[in-house]
Amino acid sequence: MQWEDLGCLSTVPNGLRTLVPKEPQETLYATGFADILCGQFPPTCVYSYDGSTFVRWAPFDQFPEVPLTHVTYIFEFRGKTYMVGVFPGPGGQGVASFLRFNGSVWELVPGWNNLMASIWDYTIRNDTLYVGGDFLEVNGGPGNLVASFDGEQWNNLGGGFRCNDCWSAGSVNALQWFNGELWACGMFDQVLDIPAHGIAKWDGQRWCVLPGGFLQASLVGSPLYDMTVWRDSLYMCGLFESVDGVPAHQIVQWIGGDAVEDCSTVGIGETVPPTGLVVSPIAEPGRWAVHFPKEGSWVLAAYDAIGRMVDRWHVVGSTVVIDLGNRPLGLYLLRTGTPEGAWYSAKVLR
């Protein structure tokens, strides 16, 4: 009937802000930016809890100390430990966002080629891992905002999603199982060959979109942030003020039963260009060479972590050198498009 202190002092404020895993597993982790917990030095991004105390998680000590390193999710899947965040790649080479620990060393996740893409949510069902985030096939991702993984091979789940009228290429922010189907919500307006409103459900073969357009007066593409099931009902929250013109204040309950607005074509994958933006660092800090899919006239924009445009370049050709050296440290999204409606994006860490 009351809270119990775990007897562990930490600095205030503390960069460790997440408790994981989401799925029931043996170990509880405290994750975030490197900080001190229970008086243990030096700071680290991951502490494990065995039921009596938090301790530094030894596998993470293999990484060198690098500014802005952080960890969000850690979970067990098919006998290996997976980690999501932003941290040095295996052997300290490059930057990675998704790695796995095989019991002795860290290794790249097979097929995860978009090293700077983010995973915002995950779920495990029937020995299959499902992830949602801001990755795209054109940038080397295993799918478009959503994909499944069997431990070695990825499935793009019918082509996934796109966001054609958003400041970014879109994202899947939350995944939730409801009535035996996988629901995904986030910021997207297209599911393969049909329009969408930021939410859809996967029946194992195709995506179906739900009735209702979520809008906030000042935004295009109002993001949906999270979902949960409570008392056999699905609840969702997001940055919206109305649904189909009816006032709705940021959280709603689904009462539509099996109602769907439309479903994608079964068995037809999304046609996307085979290549996207390729970004390579150059000698000077804060500068990168950006390579476009082909020769042409391009407008490249850079956005900060909260979606504000911070720079823009008009390019004629197939390559440009950009300079963000005068911008604050952090993650930046680069985005460009074509008159035909194809969008390309990549991320850089300043």
Give your account of this protein's structure.
- The chain has strands spanning 16-20, 28-35, 44-49, 54-56, 70-77, 80-88, 95-101, 106-108, 119-125, 128-133, 146-149, 154-155, 161-162, 171-178, 181-187, 190-191, 194-195, 199-202, 207-209, 214-215, 224-230, 233-238, 242-243, 246-247, 251-253, 262-263, 278-281, 287-303, 309-323, 331-337, 343-349.
- With 350 residues, it is mainly β.
- It has a domain at 278-349: Immunoglobulin-like (Sandwich).
- The strands form eight sheets. The chain has a five-stranded antiparallel sheet, with no helix packed on it. Strands 27, 28, 29, 30 and 31 form a five-stranded antiparallel sheet that branches.
- Strand 30 and strand 31 form a beta hairpin.
- It starts with 15 loop residues before the first strand and ends with a strand.
User: Which percent range fits the helix content?
Assistant: under 10%
Gap from first CA to last CA:
47 Å
Overall, the morphology is: globular
Number of helical stretches of at least 4 residues: 0
Produce the secondary structure layout.
Elements (H helix, E strand, L loop, with lengths): L15 E5 L7 E8 L8 E6 L4 E3 L13 E8 L2 E9 L6 E7 L4 E3 L10 E7 L2 E6 L12 E4 L4 E2 L5 E2 L8 E8 L2 E7 L2 E2 L2 E2 L3 E4 L4 E3 L4 E2 L8 E7 L2 E6 L3 E2 L2 E2 L3 E3 L8 E2 L14 E4 L5 E17 L5 E15 L7 E7 L5 E7 L1
Antiparallel strand pairs: 1-2, 2-3, 3-4, 5-6, 6-7, 7-8, 9-10, 10-11, 11-12, 13-16, 14-15, 15-18, 16-17, 18-19, 19-26, 20-23, 21-22, 22-25, 23-24, 27-28, 28-29, 28-30, 30-31
